Amino acid sequence: MLLYGYENREALHEQIKSFFDTLDRHPIVLPDGEQLPIRISAGVAWVEEEAYTFGELVGRADAAMYMAKNSGRGKVVEYGGR
Fold first, then answer.
1. Could you tell me the pLDDT band of residue 68, with boundaries at 50, 70 and 90?
2. With a threshold of 0.85, does the pTM exceed it?
3. How much is the pLDDT for 35?
4. SS3 (DSSP) at 39
5. Which of 36, 44, 62, 73 has the fewest CB atoms lying closer than 10 Å?
6. What are the residues facing 78 on neighbouring strands?
7. Which helix (H) or strand (E) segment is 35 a member of?
8. Listed residue (50, 36, 39) closest to 80, CA to CA
9. Looking at the domain that runs over 9-81, which CATH code has it been given?
10. What is the spatial distance between Cα 73 and Cα 55, in angstroms, rounded to a whole number?
11. Distance between CA atoms of 41 and 26, rounded to whole angstroms?
12. CA 48 to chain centre
């Protein structure tokens, strides 16, 4: 997911938390009625003053996402720890 227009981390983290909360309230329901919770992790890469290609930015977000997954589901990690 690509989110843009966020200039501060608090607003972005509020949006991500809202997304996580929505997924928590809407599990996947199988035909037999079994409910499977949706657990996700998020990686964030900010556009800094240096110019990045789109591919570099996505790569950084992807690296942060895998760091989040390795620390437990439902986590948000920012690339570079901004």
1. very high
2. no
3. 95
4. coil
5. 36
6. 44
7. strand 35-36
8. 50
9. 3.30.70.270
10. 25
11. 16
12. 18
Tell me the two tokens of residue 34: 């079994």
> Any idea where the domains of the chain sit in the sequence?
9-81
Sign of CA dihedral 44, 47, 51, 54: positive
Interval 29-67: pLDDT, tens:
999 999 999 988 999 988 876 767 888 888 999 999 999
Mean of pLDDT values over 16-26: 92
What DSSP line would sit under 23-78, residue for residue?
HHHS-EE-TTS-EE-----EEE----SS---HHHHHHHHHHHHHHHHHT-TT-EEE
Coil, strand or helix: which one is 37?
Answer: coil
User: Tell me, what amino acid is at 68?
Assistant: A
The two tokens of residue 17 are: 């938390």
pLDDT exceeds 60 at position 81: no
Quote the pLDDT of residue 43.
Answer: 92
- The DSSP-derived string for 8-27 is SHHHHHHHHHHHHHHHHHS-
